[in-house]
Amino acid sequence: RNGRIQKWLSGASTGTTVGGANGQIGFPTDVSVDNYGTIYALSGGGLYRFYPGSTWGTIVISFYA
């Protein structure tokens, strides 16, 4: 378990990491992609945003005080 988000193209034998490099987001429970390709991932610590081409996200909402 490494908590990353991977994109798998049809017929591919391997996936590409598109979010959560180095276990940044723990274990995402929900993932959404908008019309611009920005990925939003919900994890126990909050909501993270990953812009296209970047595997390192920014915290949009933190669940910690």
Outline of the structure:
By secondary structure, this protein is mainly β. The chain is built from no helices and 6 strands.
List the helices and strands and how they pair.
Layout: E1 5-7, E2 16-19, E3 30-33, E4 39-43, E5 46-50, E6 58-62
Antiparallel strand pairs: 1-2, 3-4, 4-5, 5-6
Overall number of domains: 1
Structural class assignment: mainly beta
Number of extended strands: 6
Helical segment tally? 0
Determine the oligomeric state from the structure. Answer: single chain
Characterize the largest beta sheet: strand count, sense, and whether it forms a barrel: 4 strands, antiparallel
Query: From the alpha-carbon coordinates, what is the Rg to the nearest angstrom?
Result: 12 Å
Reading the helices and strands in chain order gives EEEEEE
Percent of residues in beta strands: 35-45%
Low-confidence stretches: none
Spatial gap, N to C terminus: 27 Å
Query: Helix fraction?
Result: under 10%
Shape: globular
Mean pLDDT: 88
Biggest sheet, strands in spatial order? 3-4-5-6
